[in-house]
Amino acid sequence: MEMLSDPLFWAGLGSITLINIVLSGDNAVVIALAARSLPDHQRGKAVMWGAGAAVVMRIILTIIAVEMLKWPFLKIIGAILLFWIAVKLLVPEDDEENIESSDNLMKAIKTILIADLVMSLDNVIGVAAAAKGNMVLLILGLAISIPIVIFGATMLMKLMEKWPMIITIGAGLLGWVAGEMLVSDPAWANWITTTFPWLHVHLGKIEFSWVQVVGAAFVVLLGKHLAKKVGAHAESEHKIIDLAAGDQKNQPNK
Predict the structure, then answer these.
(1) Closest alpha carbon to 164 in 235, 80, 231, 68
(2) Which of 7-21, 28-42, 93-107 has the lowest mean pLDDT?
(3) What are phi and psi of 186, to 5 degrees?
(4) Residues near 93 by beta carbon (within 8 Å), at least 6 away in sequence
(5) Considering all CA atoms of the chain, what is the largest pairwise distance in Å, rounded to the nearest integer?
(6) DSSP for 157-189?
(7) Please, are residues 174 and 19 in contact by the beta-carbon 8 Å criterion?
(8) Nearest 5°: phi and psi at 206?
């Protein structure tokens, strides 16, 4: 029970919960889309059974990922992938969803399970990295955040739209976790500690690396920069379409 009085335990639990909630927004939408054509009395069953199976599958995958991250070089690969996931989180995407709805309960559950499996790679890596091998922390974090995602999908989406800072904080947190993964890989952790001791900062019980700070800043700055470019490109395309439409209207009828 000592861990309950440890501020680092609660910080880790908060990180896992936030990461999973931020990265699970698309999964929650998939659950709603897959069940939208079912009769009212079957929608609840599809969400419960589909999401329940997805939860069990994700916990198993995350536990496997935690063990695999102990292998040399895998943390480095995971860190690079996590940086990409975090930056991608800040770049706007198309709103179109290619998830087919189904009017059959079993098909809807199957759709939810397969879609969640395909889309859960970011969740699995992010949560496994934040847990740092602590299975209690891992299971508690997933147990708290997954029901929030399943039953609060609409509210979560509205909150993120109203306060985009939540997504920015989540992306920065992923960059922070990726930085920690990068310097703690078994392949070079000891070499980094002895060669660059100044990278590690100790503030009482709190320990972190300057690489984590740089990782969080890198993700937020690059993500915002790419988001601006995407926004500018979309705006220029709209202007071209509007000009073309205006030219067609102004052409004389033959």
Answers:
(1) 231
(2) 93-107
(3) -55, -25
(4) none
(5) 85
(6) HHHHHH-THHHHHHHHHHHHHHHHHHHH-TTTH
(7) yes
(8) -85, 125
Distance, in Å, from the CA atom of 69 to the CA atom of 47, rounded to the nearest integer, reads 31
Which of 185, 182, 184, 163 is CA-nearest to residue 174? 182
Q: Which residue has the higher pLDDT, 97 or 78?
A: 78
Q: What are phi and psi of 112, to 5 degrees?
A: -60, -45
Separation CA 227–CA 207 (nearest Å): 32
One-letter amino acid of 142: L
Cβ(218)–Cβ(210) below 8 Å: no
- Percent helix, strand, coil in the chain, to 5, is 80, 5, 20
User: pTM of the full predicted structure?
Assistant: 0.63
- Provide the token pair at 11: 């910080």
> In the predicted model, is pLDDT for residue 106 greater than 50?
yes
Candidates 129, 35, 117, 114; CA nearest to 82 is: 129
Residue 95: per-residue pLDDT? 46
Residue 199 DSSP symbol: G
Report how far residue 120's alpha carbon sits from residue 126's, in angstroms, rounded to the nearest whole number: 10
Q: What does the block give as tokens for 46?
A: 């599809």
